[in-house]
Fold these 3 entries.
Entry 1:
Amino acid sequence: MTYKTILLHVDNRPRRAERLALAFTLAERFQAHVVGLFALEAARIPSYALAETGQLVIEIERKRRVEDARAAEAQFRQAERRAHTSSEWRLSTDDATAALQLSARYADLVIAGQPEPDEPLDRAFAGELVLGAGRPVLFVPYAGHFADAGKRVMIAWNASREATRAVTDALPILARADSVEVVAFEPGGDHGEIAGADLAHFLARHGVKATAAHDVAPGIEIGERILSRAADIDADLIVMGAYGRSRVRELVLGGATKGILDAMTVPVLMAH
């Protein structure tokens, strides 16, 4: 198994450059094809503005999107010229969530940005994407530099269906990593003396050299523990399942997925 098509979400945010760099780095690593898809969420135009000068506001928004798309394509082409892999540029006028979910059907990996702070619609977009893409989504933080992520990987393991999917989807990266640590965070059931050992053995049969550990810290949120452990071992990528319980429940009560999307410090590959 490998990645042969990488779908990159390109938007009008300054941090898209970091996603571009990581996408082309991974594409060169796997000899994959990069599809850069420019798509924005629907414009949030107040109803009073539409009522007063609706057509003018719509035209201004259309022109802004055209300008944003041109600037984004120029940046993509610049990265494309430096890369040693194939790529293509696509432009969608559809809502970003729908456009990414559809294009993900024809990709092995999706790369998107971490939700911006204080932007609830960004978080909603990230949640809908990982739930509906049917592919692993690699979220890149809005702060920091990660052009060569995937060398030191931490797997946040809880033996769930979602975590299993994430690990399987991440096998191409895991097989090429310099180090992989499986850290069990409260897995259910009987997993032996070392909770992540069975997964480490499974990975070994796929040519992945992984160590296993168990993280216990009652009273501390799982998301905080995952990020703390990743920092302790200097991981440059986290692999984990997303929304093991209902998304509504996570949004209301909190959970690992929400915590990581809010505060990730390294890229995170999620699957549902």
Entry 2:
Amino acid sequence: MTTRGSAAASHDLLLDRIMFEPPETEFHEPPWPSGLAPQPVHAALQADGSLPAADAVLITWTAAEKEALAYVLTPGVAADDWTQYRHDWTKYVGQLTDRSPAREAQCLGEFYMATIGRLRVCCLHSQLHPATDAATLPTAQLAAQAAAETGAKLIVTTGTAGGAGSGTVLGDVNVATAAASLFTTRLAGHPWSKETWPTTPLTAGQSSMLSMDVLEPLFAANSGRLPAQWAPRAPQVWYGDTVSTDFFAFEDETDHYGLAAYKPNIRDVEMDDAAVAYGLSAMAEPPPLAVARNASDPIMPGASEDDAKQAEEIYQQYGLYTTWNSAIASWALIAGLAED
């Protein structure tokens, strides 16, 4: 178990990142464009335990990311008040390991509904993770299940990531053009272990809502919380590759993990997006996919144990604040559909 503002007791950098719960803080509501402010909507599970119908599903991953999504998209409804989701739990339980957060939580995740304009949004926090669960990749199954149950026209995977690519700083957002897997440890050797899935091209409305003319005042409402050392300028949006690994990897100036060599257009490294892309690709009629990731830890000088610990400390201190930016970018991806 974790306590608010502490890391998991595992002393495992990967699990610490997933389980860390930041302390509560003050969030200033951004100046949303007229008619597009997120509004929380209570909705129960369907009679069979499946998710409610939605136009879009936002999937996030860590406890801190769930907190950030609640601040931005379900204002007034705390993350702790989201509803547990367990549909077809028995199908998943055999795919969990002793390191699976879902085993401790006894659920697939938690959700809450919101509206953005005329669109209904299912905000879903996944307790499944490729790097902790079995090599059957239940995260991919969950993505397809959520898409099918909701009938969503858009799936967005969003949250924290290690920053990558020249010029990326803490708080920047990558709206990925592709999701690539680089599973080289416990998930190596599968057809999907080293593959790239393009995300869906942005619509005109999405591109418009992602412009800095729209996003800059929304980001600025809660600016000033990041250190100048790691965030020397205001956050901006990049359009590059997201790379998913099956262990806690991060970009550094020596490219120790070969991330930039694998994907020269890399802008972030995380552990989930490729599994979502793979799960959706197996559907007969997959919905569009988008990725919005924030740089919650910067490009590090090296890849030593001390560098890894510092990256984790930066995440725990500032990850909630940086994730507000990717939650806002996720809002823009959906608000753009409402404007098309």
Entry 3:
Amino acid sequence: MNNITPVILCGGSGTRLWPLSRAGFPKQFLVLSGTSSLFQQAIERVNSIAAEDIAVGETLVVTNEEHRFLALDQLRELKSVSATLLLEPVGRNTAPALTLAALQATANGKTLFWSSRRQIKLSSTLQLLRLQLQQKCPRCRFRRNRNPRHHPDSPETGYGYIKRQGEPGQNGEYTVAQFAEKPSIATAQAYLENGEYAWNSGMFVLKASTWLKALQQFRPDIAAATQLAWSEKTVDAPFVRPSKAAFSAIPSDSIDYAVMEPISHPSHTGGGEGISQFAWCRLQQVGNDLGAWDAVWQVGDQDVNGNVTQGDTLTTDTTNTLIHATSRLVGTVGVNNLIIVETSDAILVADRSQSQHVKKLVIALEQLKREEHTLHRKVHRPWGWYDSIDEEERFK
């Protein structure tokens, strides 16, 4: 029997999906398609791998203290899922976040790490990862991309990359030659032309103890600081809170920079028992990192003119455009390749090819000390919500 503990890293602010995604209500809690949020979809999919030989344990959600009630409310809608929320007092990137989950799950055997920030449809790929762990594969491996649509088709600088080597195995998996985080435009172009690189979708299957050993080898400072914060935790079920003072002192780094890049470096010989027992899978062929509005358009239900619309919309002579209307009618005439997102207090209009740069607006709003980068007009609270219809210096 394989005991799997699902781990959902539920952090980030999703600035490139402004104005729908904001610091107080980030993208993982948004419903961008269907009737459930990205967060809920991730939890449901990873829990669906339960089988005769796979026991799925309690889900571990690592999220920000400020988002605890958003996460809890959405979890309550998933009646069959039991979860513990590990609350970060401040953001310290994904390496400390995964370490919190590993410390919680150490006694549970293998841990399935799954990112809630991506829209992923489960496939037999997860079964491949399980088989690799059973076989204790000596090298990191990834599955061949079977859908050319999601193979790197542009020099993206916002994604990490993984280089394959050798011939594929019987399940289409490759040995990993190199992990490379967000490259320059010139390097990304070289990766694209090389043809041996895939986008890193950031999905891992590994033992909790394996991650802790790897982190101890490559970033002992993060390992020690996170262990200290964990040792001083408080528990108020379903919430677990590491020490705020100790956690704030942890160096900020990602899983990829802290461990995956150095573990695949030629100078690393795999020293340390269990450190090479990572099973990794290229799941991008069946999903998409919804990091910007153009990605939402790509995975959306396009009409005959290539438009993706949601809400009250009316289009004439409009092509290849995404329109998201929240509170009123949005009409377009004679436009092409646009992103139009309407909310009750902000409207975004952008060229679809420039959607990665929406975060520049968020930075500008922050510098101007405007609330539109943080909160919607309608603000959710544990007791319900409030809607601000007007506000000046001495009244709200």
